[in-house]
Amino acid sequence: MAGFDFTFRCRDEYEPLGRILLRRAQELAKNFDLEFRYRVVPSGWYVTVDGPLPSMQALIQPMVVQLAPLADGFPKPKLRSQRRRVAERLVNEYCDGAARMREMIEDLSCQLGGTPSSYFFDEGSATHLTAQVREFERSLILFHNGLISASTFAEGAHTVTEAVLKACLPRNKGQGSFAELLDQVAEAAELAPGHKQTLLRLKERRRMAKHRGQRVRHADMAADFGNMIAALHCLFRYLRLQRG
Hints:
The protein is mainly alpha-helical and 244 residues long.
C-alpha cells in the first residue's frame, strides 16, 4: 500500500464545483480499491489517497475523461473555460501526487533490490524509445481499465519489449529473433526465470494471434500482467545502466 496527499485550492465562488468534482473523483476511486478522502482547509481541500500505486495510476484515465465534462455541465462559474480550469487543476494535483509517490517507491525499491510495479517506465537516455514507451504506458492503463482487448495489448507489449531488448544490445547483436534477443539480455538484466518465461509466453501469444488468427485470452494476459511489468522494469533498469 502507498499514499500521497495534496491541497486542492479553490476560490470561494468555485467551491460548489470543486466539491462536486471531489465527490466524483472519490466515487471513481472506489472502483479501483483506493481510499480517496478530503476535508476542508483554508482556501480549498486537503486530499489524501491510499492504495496500490498501479491503481492510483490507472485512476488518472477516468478522471481525465469524466471530470472535464462534469465541469462543463455545471452552471457556475459562468465561463466554461473557468470551470474547465478547476477540473484540470484537480487532475493535475492528483497526477503530481501520484508521480511523487512513484518516485519515492522506486527509490526505495532500488535501495532494497526490489522491482517496481509502476505502470510508468524510465527509458533514460534512450530517447528514440520515448514515444513508443509513452504509448505502451497508456495501453497498460487501458488494459487495466478493461478498455482494450487482450490481443491489442499483447501486440503493444511485444513491440515495446522487443524494442527495449534491441536497445540493450550493440547494433551488431540486436538483429535476432525475440527469443534470441531475450537469451542475450536475460542474465545480464537479472531477469528471474519466471519473468523470462512470461516474456516467452507473450511472444507465443502474439505469434498465434498475428499469424494464425487466434484470439489472445484476457485471463492469460491478466495472469502474466504483474510478471510482465516486473520484467520490463528489469530491462529498462539494465538499459539505463548500459547507457550510463
